[in-house]
Amino acid sequence: DAVTSLRRVAPQIADQLVDALLHPEQPFAVRRRIPRVLTGCPPQQAAEALLEGLSDKRFEVRYQCGCALGVVAKQNPEIHFDPQLVFEAVQREATVDKKVWDTQQLLERGEQEYGSSFAGLVRDRTSRSLEHVFRLLALVLPKEPLQIAFRGLHTADENLRGIALEYLESVLPSSVREPLWTLLEDRRPAQRPVRPKEEVLATLMRSHHSIELNLAAMNKVPGREP
Asked: What does the pLDDT look like over 114-152, one tens digit per residue?
């Protein structure tokens, strides 16, 4: 595999890899694979290049940069990601037309390599856009509650969806929340009490088991994709 081979020598060619990723005139087929190679580079250099890659015009390049950033963050927990840069990237993703948001696809997922922490049981029901946004948010927000909220959004239970939305509402800055909300279909009553963040988080964590049961039941419905 060319990606695996290049990753072995990535530290020696890091500058060339970064230039190729960020140069829009390079072939798309090449640039969409470079983020996976960059995970073999010095972590700080890789993180900075991948964050820049989140501004690319091609969704798959941005998606692959997000996946690679998740790998870098997991392998190097000491690396700090600037929340403002990450939130700006999420804001850009959330300001696309809803039809574009719903239909963005990938030529190559690379899921076996990256894992599926924001997919799993909901892989066939979630949009790639939402998966990408949550992966980015996990760089600067607690990952476990985000994973639970992500999965809660895909349940058939409006109460569980509401719990997930309430958590997101409590942790996202308005610059991200407002454009994202137009895409998430919030069907809760307009007039509702605002609870303390700690209480909202506790409710979400208690709902984890119910969310998993709901998703598992949905996957057993005849004719529904697993």
From this structure: 455 665 555 555 789 999 999 999 999 999 999 999 999
Query: Using CA atoms, how far apart are residues 46 and 25, in angstroms rounded to an integer?
Result: 20
Letter for the amino acid at 95? Answer: T
Q: State the maximum Cα–Cα separation within the chain, in Å, rounded to a whole number.
A: 58
Q: Which long-range contacts (CB under 8 A, 24 or more apart) does 99-107 make?
A: 101/127, 101/129, 101/130, 101/183, 102/127, 102/129, 103/127, 104/59, 104/128, 104/129, 106/59, 106/60, 106/63, 107/32, 107/60
Ranking 47-51, 101-105, 151-155, 207-211 by mean pLDDT, the lowest is 101-105
- Predicted confidence band of residue 221 (pLDDT cuts 50, 70, 90): low
Could you tell me the residue ranges of all domains in the chain?
1-80, 82-226
Cα–Cα dist 56/198, whole Å: 36
At 138, list the tokens.
Answer: 């996990």
* 142 burial type by CB count under 10 A (0-12 exposed, 13-18 middle, 19+ buried): exposed
